[in-house]
Amino acid sequence: MESERSKVLFEIVRTVVTVAIALLLAFVFILIVSKEPSKALYQFMVGPFLSVRNMGNVIELSIPFIFTGIAACIMFQARQFNMIGEGAFFFGGIMATVVALKITLPMGIHPIVAILMGGIAGAVSGYFIGYCKAKWGANEFVNSLMFNYVLLYAGLYMLINFLRDPKKGQLSSFLIPDSAQLPKIVDGTRIHVGLFIAIIAVILTYLFMYKTKWGYAIRMTGFNAKFVAYSGINVAAAIVISQVAGGFLAGIGGATQILGMHQRFEWSTLTGYGFDGIIVATLARLNPAFVPVAALFLAFLRTGADIMARNSDVPSEVVLIIQAIMIILISASGFMAKWRQRMIARKSKHAEEQGAIAC
C-alpha cells in the first residue's frame, strides 16, 4: 500500500525530472539555432541573477502567477476545468481602477477597498460559471472561454466611457491616485506590497483546501463526485464554491497587478496571466503550498528568455518549448509510472521481509 508521503515524493521527483528534460531539450534547441550558444545559455540561466533589477523582475512577474496559480488549484481540484481566471484577472483590474478613480478614501484603506472590489468582481464571474455547471450541467470549459470575452468587452466599455484619459494618445485610464497605489518595498525594483498579499493568499488557500470541511468537499468532489454525493456532500455547492473562490483570487490578482505595477489601466486585451496560472498550478500539482515555487520558476524562465533575446540571437519564444514539454510530461499519467510501481513493489517486499524476521 502506497503511503501519502510516497505519493508526494513521487510527484516531486516526477516534476523535477520533467523540468530537467524540458530544460535539456531547450538547451539542445539553443545549441542548434544560435551562432553563440554559450553566450545565449549564459544569458538565459545566469542573466536573472546579474543585477538587483533583473532579480526584481523575476519576483515582480511571479506575483500575478501566484494569484492565478492558486485560483486554478482550487477550481481544478474540484475537477472543474474553468478558464475564468483570465477574464476575472482582467475584470478585477478594471474594477479596482474604478474604485481608485471614482471613490476618495484615505491612504492605506483605498487600495484595500479597491483590491476587495476586484476580488468581488472575480467571484461573481466564477459564480456564474459554477452556477451554470451545477444547475444545468453546462460545460465550464466552453462557458468560461466565452465569458472571458464578455468580461473583456464589458471592461473596455467601462474604460472607454468612464475612465479614459482623453489627453493620452493610447487607450488608458486617468492616473491612479497615490492613495490607491501599492507601495514599493525594495529600492531599485518595482517589487510591491502585493508580494505579501500573494503570500497571505497562498497560506489562506492552503488552510481552506486542507483544513476546512468545504475544502475537503471540493477535493473529494474532484476525486469522485458521484461517491461524495452518495455520502451526503452537496456536490453542487462544492462546485460553485470552488469557482467563486478561484474567481475571487484571480480578481484580487488583477487588482493587485494594476495598483502595484501600473500608474494607469492600460490593458486593451486579455493579459494571459490566467492561462499562465494553469501552467503554474500544473507544475505545483494543484497544491497551493507549491505554487510560489512554481511561479518563481516560471517567472525565472520568462525573465531569462527575455534577457537572452536582448543579448543574443535566440528569440525569447524558446521558453514556449519548455512550457509545452513540461505540461505534456506532467499531465501524462504514464510518465515514470513503471518506476513508481517498482518503488512500491520494493517497499512491499522490504516490509514482508521485516515482518518475516519479526515472526
TrEMBL record:
**What InterPro entries does the record tag this protein with?**
ABC_transp_permease
- List membrane-spanning regions: 12-34, 55-78, 84-105, 112-129, 141-163, 191-209, 229-252, 273-300, 320-339
Q: Does the keyword Transmembrane apply?
A: yes
Q: Which UniProt keywords apply?
A: Cell membrane, Membrane, Transmembrane, Transmembrane helix
Q: Which Pfam families match?
A: BPD_transp_2 (PF02653)
Can you say where in the cell this protein is located? Cell membrane
Q: How does it sit in the membrane?
A: Multi-pass membrane protein
- Quote the protein name from its UniProt record: ABC transporter permease
Species annotation: Paenibacillus pectinilyticus
